[in-house]
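Lab notebook, entry 264. We have the chain sequence and a SMILES string for magnesium ion, and the next step in the workflow is to get a structural model of the bound complex before anyone spends time on docking refinements. Request logged below.

Task: model protein plus magnesium ion, output structure tokens.
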Amino acid sequence: MEFVVGIDVGSLSTDAVILGEEENILGYSIVGTGDSSTDAAREAMDSAAANAGVDMVRASLIISTGYGRAAVPGSGRQVTEIACHAAGAYHFFSDTELVIDIGGQDSKVIRVGKGGKVLDFAMNDKCAAGTGRFLEVMSAKLKIPLDQMGTFSLAARGEASISSVCTVFAESEVVSLVARNFPKEEIVKGLHRSVVNRVWAMTRQMSVKGGVTMTGGVAKNTGVVALMEERLGRKINVPAEPQIIGALGAALMALRHLKGAAAG
Ligand SMILES: Nc1ncnc2c1ncn2[C@@H]1O[C@H](COP(=O)(O)OP(=O)(O)OP(=O)(O)O)[C@@H](O)[C@H]1O
Ligand SMILES: [Mg+2]
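Result returned:
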């Protein structure tokens, strides 16, 4: 065996990880999903292979996950995102007992046991509030790039109160706050608070005592992470590249599958 591939086709990003036999990451990529899951999967795999300096045709097994997992060319197996985020988070932080994955269109909290096994989970996929999409809409409205939302939020002295839970109504609130010259930093912090509150509503039922790890693109938002830490009353583990954790989990499963097959 040379290497395996994990690929996570999400609503916003498609991420691929190339993993060597020792669970070592040889290369990875993050590309926009766009209109075609198949094209995005191909692009992500080619780019990760180039990054790793390997030839995709030599992959021993490709495992796909994410909402577009059925559209991945060459996929030998499909696995749920829940199991993948749990396995990927556990790989980097073995104290993980809870994973919070906030992606583009849904948010999930996963209670994790020994070895990264899924014990329980809750998911919000009914409403954009509490997801990355909500923050994308607001970043466009405020004309603040997504990757600067965290810095703005951390610089806020006070905080705007956003009372609407619905994205559309919250957007009108933002427009009116901007019109009243409310500091943008404080608006951003209020928006982050609203995301955290939504996710907290799922998290608090899990009553976890051990490590908490955040995955998915929103974990790159330092403002959301800071407020979540405040809510939890402790530090959160954030992987260096939180967006590839689902793909990493899929690749780990591919490796285990092959090793299991070889041993059995
Ligand atoms: N550099 C960044 N800084 C802050 N936030 C970011 C950054 N990059 C991405 N995001 C956030 O991450 C979200 C996308 O996350 P991710 O790529 O994990 O979603 P996805 O896996 O495609 O979606 P899903 O799992 O819901 O199908 C965006 O909506 C955005 O809010
Ligand atoms: Mg995702």
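Notes for the group: The first helix runs from residue 37 to 52. Worth checking against the assay data. The longest strand covers residues 13-20.
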